[in-house]
TrEMBL record:
Keywords: Sigma factor, Transcription, Transcription regulation. GO terms for molecular function: DNA binding; sigma factor activity. It comes from Mucilaginibacter rubeus. This is RNA polymerase sigma factor. It holds the Pfam family Sigma70_r4_2. Belongs to the sigma-70 factor family. ECF subfamily.
Length: 165
């Protein structure tokens, strides 16, 4: 049991920041993202014995987190991009410096993307290697590179629209 706890602690420390960013990308809300982070790692703990090392552990955890976030959004019948993010960005904007304001704006723009695009760009921002992103999202690496290029174009357009306001 102590061995499992030590392994879990290492896994949590190595992956929790990235998983939080992923959850935040879905919800646009710190509290909801923290809840989803905890739920994800609860599932990781419960299923750690079942992990087969067929994929990287971070890929396995991302899949659990994505499924947890999608279930949350469906059960709450909410789309973060419509409900939470605009108020969050407005509230945060008042209390953040210019650099943080740009980050908040970036997340606001990310929240306007489709679900699959949000997953991919969040992993790119977390510097997950492309082969791993391709495996998590179930598409070829070549297709992934095209998707990322298009997502970046979309984000640039969204960002520029907000900058003009």
């Amino acid at each position: 049991m102590a061995n499992k706890e030590a392994a879990f602690k290492q896994i949590y420390e190595a992956n929790s920041k990235k998983i939080f960013h992923l959850c935040y990308g879905y919800t646009g809300d710190d509290d909801a993202a923290n809840d989803l982070l905890q739920e994800t790692f609860l599932k990781v703990w419960q299923n750690l014995d079942k992990f087969r090392n067929q994929a990287m552990i971070s890929t396995w955890i991302y899949r659990i987190a994505v499924n947890t976030c999608l279930t949350y959004l469906r059960s709450e019948k909410r789309q973060a991009k419509d409900e939470l993010t605009p108020q969050l960005a407005e509230t945060k904007r008042e209390e953040l410096s210019d650099k943080n304001e740009q980050v908040a704006l970036l997340y606001k723009c990310i929240s306007k993307l489709e679900e699959s695009e949000r997953i991919i760009i969040t992993m790119v921002l977390d510097e997950v290697p492309y082969p791993e992103i391709a495996e998590i999202s179930g598409i070829s690496e070549g297709n992934l590179r095209v998707k990322i290029y298009r997502i970046k174009q979309k984000l640039t357009e969204l960002y520029n629209q907000y900058e003009r306001l």
